[in-house]
């Protein structure tokens, strides 16, 4: 079986973490050689960067500093986890990848998109997902979903105009990459969404 790289993207509270876990279990049940990863994370250094990036105590961090920390975590994870697993023909599921940087730091923080593309290219070693499931939700509905069960972190607690810009970023990416990005309405029942996702993944597995 050829390698497959599948990413999940979306607004805060869109339910992508639930969906990626469901897909992981589905693929494990098929005896696939699959790993579940998240960004930033999956490595001791990247997990430290994740904690720094999420900590509300670091609210004043410069946006230029923030983007380099996300890129650093990605570079470490791609080199240490994602690329090796793809090279041996496995399946990698990743909760967020380069599209998050375009949406959150490019559109949300208004950093230059050319610069974001360059930094994404270096950190990802040019590895792009075969398919990306984008779970879209109204930003305020997503944030309300999250706030109902947890304290909002440094990025989640940014104002609504930031999160609206992030959503616009995702809409832009979906329009730019219609063959890679599958947009799904996150308001649909989780079981329906899971069915839509497995249908697409099964097709890719048949082709590989
Ligand atoms: P989450 O995956 O648990 O939602 O947490 C990751 C947070 O980091 C989320 O608020 C989105 C944000 N993020 C960025 O701003 N840029 C990035 O490149 C990545 C990977 C995540």
Number of strands: 5
Helix vs. strand class: alpha/beta
Largest sheet: 5 strands, parallel
As laid out across the biggest beta sheet, the strand order is: 2-3-1-4-5
Radius of gyration: 16 Å
Q: Which ions and ligands are bound to the chains?
A: thymidine-5'-phosphate
**What fraction strand?**
5-15%
Order of helices and strands: EHEHHEHHEHHEH
Q: How would you state the average pLDDT, rounded?
A: 97
Low-confidence stretches: none
CA(first)-CA(last) distance:
6 Å
What would you say this structure looks like, in words?
This protein has a 5-stranded parallel beta sheet, sandwiched between helices. Helix 4 packs antiparallel against helix 5 (113-124) and helix 4 (98-108) packs across helix 7 (160-176). Helix content is 56%, strand content 13%. It has 8 helices and 5 strands, in the order βαβααβααβααβα. The protein has helices at 16-29, 44-54, 63-87, 98-108, 113-124, 139-147, 160-176, 190-207; strands at 4-10, 34-38, 91-95, 131-136, 181-185. With 208 residues, it is of the alpha/beta class. Bound molecules: thymidine-5'-phosphate. Thymidine-5'-phosphate (TMP) binds at residues 12, 38-40, 70, 95-96, 100-101, 104-105, 155-156. The site of thymidine-5'-phosphate (TMP) has 13 residues, from helix 4.
């Amino acid at each position: 079986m050829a390698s497959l790289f599948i990413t999940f993207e979306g607004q805060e509270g869109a339910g992508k973490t639930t969906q990626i876990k469901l897909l992981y279990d589905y693929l494990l049940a098929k005896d696939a050689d699959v790993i579940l990863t998240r960004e930033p994370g999956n490595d001791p250094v990247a997990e430290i960067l994740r904690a720094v990036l999420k900590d509300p105590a670091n609210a004043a961090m410069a946006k230029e500093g923030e983007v380099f920390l996300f890129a650093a975590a990605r570079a470490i994870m791609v080199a240490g986890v994602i690329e090796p697993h793809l090279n041996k023909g496995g399946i990698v599921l990743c909760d967020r990848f380069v599209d998050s940087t375009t949406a959150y730091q490019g559109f949300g923080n208004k950093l230059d998109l050319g610069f974001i593309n360059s930094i994404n290219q270096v950190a990802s070693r040019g590895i792009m997902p075969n398919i990306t499931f984008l779970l879209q939700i109204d930003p305020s509905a997503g944030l309300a979903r999250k706030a109902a069960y947890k304290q909002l972190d440094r990025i989640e607690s940014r104002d609504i105009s930031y999160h609206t810009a992030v959503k616009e970023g995702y809409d832009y990416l979906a329009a730019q990459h219609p063959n890679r990005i599958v947009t799904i309405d996150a308001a649909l029942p989780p079981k329906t969404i899971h069915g839509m996702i497995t249908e697409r993944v099964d097709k890719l597995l048949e082709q590989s």
